[in-house]
Amino acid sequence: MDPTEKAARLVKVLKDEEWKALLAIERVCLSPGPSTAERIASESGMPIERVEFALKMLNSRNLILRSDSSWVINLLAVEALAIREYVKKNYLEALGPVIAKGKESDVYEVYGSKGEVFALKFFKLGRISFRSVRRKRSVKRSEVKNWIATNYDAAKREFTSLKKLEGHPSFPRVYSYNRNTVLMSYLKGVRLSTRPQVEPGAILDSIIDALRFAYSRGVINGDMSEYNILTDGLNVWLIDWPQSVSKSHPNAFELLRRDVSNILRFFKRVYSVERHLDEVLSYIIH
Questions:
Q1: Which single residue of 17, 266, 271, 278 could bond 200 by disulfide (Cβ 3.0 to 4.6 Å)?
Q2: Looking at 106, 223, 232, 278, which residue is catalytic?
Q3: Is 223 tagged catalytic?
Q4: Distance of CA 195 to the CA centre of its chain
């Protein structure tokens, strides 16, 4: 079973004491010092005997790992905690199919309590490392802390960037973020990298206008290419913003130039549409 699907199922079966212990482990794990049973008990406000029972149950469900005398959460636990929060906020009633899978994230179709359809993005930076961890009997606490903090930060940065871009139709609308996830609008499009049949001049103009708007809001993607642009043939959406930088960044212009170069090169190669790089850059930044 897919780990995210497993996390969604676990949300329905964990008991209150397990959730309390899991939340306490998360807080302690991301703070200095060991995450021992005693410290988890203090953080959760539960008696040590109940914490030890909860730890036993969480361990049997493969939600926590042992690190010497400490306990640490894993990616399955992180995703269960995030999904639970969306359920509590009525954003998520059912997990749908996978929309996209990548090296750094997976995106799922999800359904809200009122029949809404959203896209829920799960950052999984260090996915391979997490898989290797599951095969070990112990793991360095610092490694887990770094992996989890990196994913949490990626989700927060993408949410923050897309919030700044609200008001323009060429960017996904974001509703919430939690831990390693971002909840956003569901977009019915295909990646430009699949070379769909479009009116290339109009699509390229829309992309350039979107990049200009982003720049006006102080945001530069920093990793723009045909792989993170969706289109339905008429509209375009620029996705994937966790690595974005502000236009005050020391390398802002170089990153913007690379973004624009990637797009112009693709359109010239695939659709035989040309734009002059310096003219496009001038249009974007003025």
A1: 271
A2: 223
A3: yes
A4: 25
